[in-house]
Write a structure and sequence with these properties.
Elements (H helix, E strand, L loop, with lengths): L4 E5 L3 H13 L3 E5 L2 H11 L3 E7 L7 H11 L5 E5 L5 H8 L4 E4 L4 H13 L2
Parallel strand pairs: 1-2, 1-3, 3-4, 4-5
Length: 124
Amino acid sequence: MAAKTVLLVDDEEIVIGVGRQMLEKLEFAVLTANNGKEALDVYKNNQTEIDFVILDMIMPDMGAADTYDGLRSINPAVKVLLSSGYGADQKTNELLSRGCCGFIQKPFNMKGLSEKIEEILTSP
């Protein structure tokens, strides 16, 4: 079976770096984007390879809601795991109610990340 591919979207380089290392240890291929606009470009160009997206809630210019809407316009069935350094709030819950697959709080660890990914990949 081919390796699963994840698009990791975060405006903090340290999160991209650590996240990439964790995901690669979990045997995922990793594409990255530093903001919402870049995420949409990367997703549009690689959507057939990307199995799911880890999306930071708070980014400059284009936040998670607009980025999620853009991803859904490209692929209505996109699987998105929201991530934030803050706990789940009203914006997070609103996105979850609109179809995001889950939420993970940063900093995440290997076990928590692995469990959330398993939930997403096994959900219909």
